[in-house]
Design goal:
Pfam families: NDK
Mean pLDDT: 95
Helix content: 40-55%
Enzyme class: transferase
Low-confidence stretches: none
Largest sheet: 4 strands, antiparallel
Bound molecules: guanosine-5'-triphosphate, magnesium ion
Strand order of the largest sheet: 2-3-1-4
Keywords: ATP-binding, Kinase, Nucleotide metabolism, Nucleotide-binding, Transferase
Shape: globular
Oligomer: single chain
EC number: 2.7.4.6
Number of helices: 7
Strand content: 15-25%
Binding site for ATP: 9, 57, 85, 91, 102, 116
Length: 136
């Protein structure tokens, strides 16, 4: 059985959408294995987002991710990595399909596309690396 790391980012926690996001994960039939409320620091976020270092949105993203608590969730299920990304919708909340988390609730704040509520690991390798970072 596959596992993925889901994050409810600070915008999702601040907007009280954690329950709605957990509800969608559970309704799909995936299992919650572990869950923590984390105030992420720069060191953790630099590791989590190392693939984006140097990109124009990197610094605003790291700042934003420290703006409040994040809910980190270890989720298990058959093909859950691909499945959660499908539940989340595409990165840009304006064009994410209705019915997805980002499509239904994400808001576009101009250049701050990063406020798209959730993160989901994008491969088996990313999931292993990210789960080790957030859950040790
Ligand atoms: P995650 O599940 O959060 O990793 O999203 P993703 O895989 O859909 O996107 P990606 O890994 O490419 O980027 C990580 C995060 O950086 C995104 O979720 C956004 O928050 C932010 N991001 C990505 N691309 C852009 C962009 O072009 N502009 C801005 N402002 N933020 C971006
Ligand atoms: Mg990604």
């Amino acid at each position: 059985i596959e596992e993925t790391l889901v994050l409810v980012k600070p915008d999702g926690v601040a907007r009280n959408l954690t329950g709605e996001i957990l509800r969608r994960i559970e309704a799909k039939g995936y299992s919650l294995v572990d869950l923590r409320l984390v105030q992420a620091d720069r060191e953790l976020l630099a590791k989590h987002y190392e693939e984006h270092e140097g990109k124009p949105f990197y610094e605003p993203l790291i700042e934003f991710m420290q703006s409040g608590p994040t809910v980190a969730i270890r989720v298990a299920g058959n093909r859950v990595i691909e499945g959660f990304r499908s539940l989340a919708g595409t990165t840009d909340p304006t064009t994410a399909a209705p019915g997805t988390i980002r499509g239904d609730f994400g808001r576009d704040w101009g250049l701050k596309v990063q406020q798209n509520l959730v993160h989901g690991s994008d491969s088996v390798e990313s999931a292993e690396r990210e789960l080790a970072l957030w859950f040790g």
